[in-house]
Amino acid sequence: MHKVIFDTDPGIDDAMALLFLERHPEIDLLGITTVFGNASIETTTRNALFLKREWNIKAPVAKGGDVTYDAARPMAPWPVVVHGVNGLGDIDMPETIDDVPLDPRPAFQFIIDTVRANPGEVEIVAVGRMTNLALAIAHDPEIIGMVKQVVVMGGSFEKNGNVTPAAEANIHGDPEAADAVFTAPWKVVIVGLDVTIQTVMTRTQMHDLAARGGPHLELLAKISDPYIDFYSQQVEDGMVVHDSCACVYVVAPELFGLRPGSVRVVCGGIADGQTIQKPSQQFFPPSPWDDKPDQQVAMTIEPVKVVDLVAKTLVP
Ligand code: BDR
Ligand code: CA
């Protein structure tokens, strides 16, 4: 069994990824930690509680903070054109979810406690800003050696970003946090735009899941509809399943081709939030990549198989 903490900013593709984790038979979802990103922390946390209730998810929800890792950094605006003002495609939903309790701990403390309770076993799948993870290792660096792996949806290495030509949203929203996570001595697998942008669930596939999967899938399809409209301007008639790609890596790593090398994040200037991996050639020292641990960056993916696995897991 894979023991997973899901660090997320729901978010439409986050919602699909959450249902994938909940339903995959080899995944034990230990907790959901929220981060700002696709909407404010209040909104993403409300959305996590809403999805927990609607989908009968047992895992607790712990709320993240409302500032970046470097609190002096101005917050990036929420991408309302992508996920809607309410972060879930502007479906009708309550302002607050009062009948589902939040875990009393801040997200970073939940991560620390859960890792310490399961040494060597926890896999963290982080599909929003890396703020909670950076805070967790800053507060308790010993957990770095106790985590099995961190799988991140974020960054872009040989393609443009999606917020600026240089930067992908999850990294651009908190570059200092991402740099802290990527340069820590633990195993990080980065599943970025290089592979996620190719991985599309078509509108027809989504409608088919809704038709066969009952109210839970009908809800997901309703949430996803405006997201499909948005992505249909860029790809075929469907949605890019960014966050599900990172979740699929946990159970089917053979569907990805990885490239090793240390990774740094540009913090400031016109390339703020750009992710750069050191290639294997030699450079003149000193460089900011020296003495940093090698991480793994996904450069290839089998998109059809990834989407099939997502669909088969959502509706067996
Ligand atoms: C990432 O940004 C968010 O909008 C998505 O949920 C995904 O995690 C893609 O750049
Ligand atoms: Ca996300």
UniProtKB/TrEMBL annotation:
Output the Gene Ontology cellular-component terms.
cytosol
Q: Name one GO molecular function term.
A: purine nucleosidase activity
Keywords, in A-Z order = Glycosidase, Hydrolase
Q: Which GO terms describe its biological process?
A: purine nucleoside catabolic process
Asked if the keyword Hydrolase belongs to this entry, the reply reads yes
Q: CDD domains this protein is in?
A: nuc_hydro_CaPnhB
User: Residue limits of the Inosine/uridine-preferring nucleoside hydrolase domain?
Assistant: 4-305
Keyword Hydrolase part of the UniProt annotation = yes
Q: Which Pfam families match?
A: IU_nuc_hydro
* Protein's name according to its UniProt entry: Inosine-uridine nucleoside N-ribohydrolase
Q: Which organism is it from?
A: Martelella mediterranea
